[in-house]
């Protein structure tokens, strides 16, 4: 679907829009809620750019006095967490003449987007996928705002160690993303006295997982699995097993951030620490955008919504200062210096990361407060 967001009342000298391709999971098996939040952030930023005069224009507040620029147009495609579908969408969007690509939440899908965009010479700013190896080879065409998985998950491992956990069970489904996360945890924990106990969710029932946790004397369980299945029955089984009353359940991938987690699990979904990429306190921009996102979504915005807003803010800044030529955009990643909702955004080359990277957005370990599951508690913060 195509989503033009030009402001009706703004006077323009050039009615040809600058098109940005947006890739988001909007239908299952994609995480639809994450896609909805990501799209809300993208759309809000585009609306504000157009109200301020568009690309190359000057403008006032809420569209009043906005003049001279070209409107931004978001051309949205649903990836449905399908890498092949996403790659086909990149081909289509390139043919439609988009200046750049934005978005995606699922890491495996973002890899497919990055590979096809690189092959087609199309700049891609990844919003929310964290897999370190976003591309097989280094490229100047791809950049990313989300922190690399190795950065965030090492912070999560430090949190586990500080909380006294040394035997951490990882119940994982087969996935490049889950395997990468398990490896990060193992490599970081082992030199510090921690042990990862692997549990293969391909062959274990929730009851069997509970038995294994007891047998292995694990003090923490990380379900690296899909939501709602098998995450919900697994969490419920552990919560109801009296032998495991003291075990910590954790979710470094961030599933408890979303309201569907709380709706699915109720009280059982609280006190499950997860990673999110927000500052402890927002500045004026983040506070203003948070209010607008809440109005747009009808609920508290997740960190993914802020990632979407920041993505389009970065791209709009590049388009204003360096033009709409694809090659010019790609050459301009190292010149990014933009105020985002979560801090000043600059892109750099980071060891082990083959794309231009914001190093780093803020990282927190938080959970839902058992006394009020709609409220989050900050348990740990990572270094900048």
- Describe the global form: globular
Mean model confidence by pLDDT: 93
* Class based on secondary structure composition and strand pairing: alpha/beta
Number of helical regions: 11
Question: What distance lies between the first and last C-alpha atoms, to the nearest angstrom?
Answer: 38 Å
Residue ranges: pLDDT <50 for 5 or more in a row? 1-14, 58-67
Can you offer a commentary on this structure?
- It is a single chain.
- This protein is of the alpha/beta class.
- Helices cover about 35% and strands about 20% of the residues.
- The chain is built from eleven helices and 16 strands.
- The strands form three sheets. It has a nine-stranded mixed sheet with strand order 1-3-2-4-5-6-14-13-12, sandwiched between helices. Strands 8-7-9-10 form a four-stranded parallel sheet, sandwiched between helices. It has a three-stranded antiparallel sheet with strand order 11-15-16.
- The longest helix has 20 residues, at about 30-50.
Keywords:
single chain, 384 residues, alpha/beta, four-stranded parallel β-sheet, 16 strands, 21% strand
Q: Brief description of this entry?
A:
This protein has 384 residues and is of the alpha/beta class. The protein contains eleven helices and 16 strands.
Secondary structure: elements and pairs:
Blueprint: E1 2-4, E2 18-24, H1 32-51, E3 72-78, H2 83-95, E4 100-103, H3 107-120, E5 124-126, E6 142-144, H4 149-162, E7 167-172, H5 176-189, E8 195-200, H6 206-216, E9 220-224, H7 231-240, E10 248-249, H8 259-265, E11 274-276, H9 284-297, H10 303-322, H11 326-331, E12 337-340, E13 343-349, E14 356-358, E15 364-369, E16 372-381
Parallel strand pairs: 2-3, 2-4, 4-5, 5-6, 6-14, 7-8, 7-9, 9-10
Antiparallel strand pairs: 1-3, 11-15, 12-13, 13-14, 15-16
């Amino acid at each position: 679907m195509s989503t033009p967001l030009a402001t009706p009342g703004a006077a323009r000298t050039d009615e040809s829009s600058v098109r940005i391709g947006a890739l988001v999971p909007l239908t299952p098996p994609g995480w639809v809620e994450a896609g909805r939040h990501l799209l809300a952030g993208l759309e809000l930023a585009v609306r504000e750019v157009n109200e301020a005069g568009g690309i190359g224009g000057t403008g006032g507040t809420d569209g009043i006095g906005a003049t001279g620029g070209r409107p931004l147009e978001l051309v949205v495609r649903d990836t449905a967490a399908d890498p092949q579908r996403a790659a086909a969408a990149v081909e289509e969007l390139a043919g439609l003449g988009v200046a750049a690509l934005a978005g995606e939440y699922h890491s495996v899908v973002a890899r497919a987007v990055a590979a096809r965009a690189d092959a087609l010479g199309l700049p891609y700013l990844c919003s929310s996928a964290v897999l370190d190896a976003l591309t097989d080879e280094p490229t100047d065409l791809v950049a990313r705002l989300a922190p690399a998985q190795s950065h965030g998950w090492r912070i999560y491992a430090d949190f586990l160690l500080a909380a006294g956990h040394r035997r951490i069970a990882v119940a994982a489904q087969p996935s490049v993303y889950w395997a990468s996360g398990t490896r990060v945890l193992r490599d970081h924990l082992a030199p510090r006295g921690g042990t990862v106990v692997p549990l293969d969710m391909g062959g274990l029932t929730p009851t069997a997982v509970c038995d294994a946790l007891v047998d292995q004397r694990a003090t923490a369980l990380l379900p690296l699995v899909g939501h709602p299945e098998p995450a919900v029955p697994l969490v419920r089984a552990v919560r109801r097993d009296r032998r495991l009353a003291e075990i910590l359940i954790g979710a470094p991938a961030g599933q408890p951030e979303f309201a569907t987690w709380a709706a699915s699990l109720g009280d059982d979904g609280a006190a499950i620490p997860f990673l999110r990429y927000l500052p402890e306190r927002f500045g004026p921009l983040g506070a203003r955008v948070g209010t607008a996102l809440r109005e747009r979504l009808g609920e508290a915005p997740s960190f993914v919504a802020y990632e979407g807003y920041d993505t389009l803010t970065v791209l709009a800044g590049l388009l204003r200062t360096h033009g709409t030529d694809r090659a010019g955009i790609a050459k301009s990643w190292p010149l990014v210096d933009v105020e985002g909702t979560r801090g000043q955004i600059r892109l750099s080359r980071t060891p082990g990361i083959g794309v231009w990277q914001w190093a780093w957005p803020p990282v927190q370990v938080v959970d839902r407060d058992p006394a009020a599951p709609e409220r989050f508690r900050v348990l740990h913060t990572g270094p900048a």
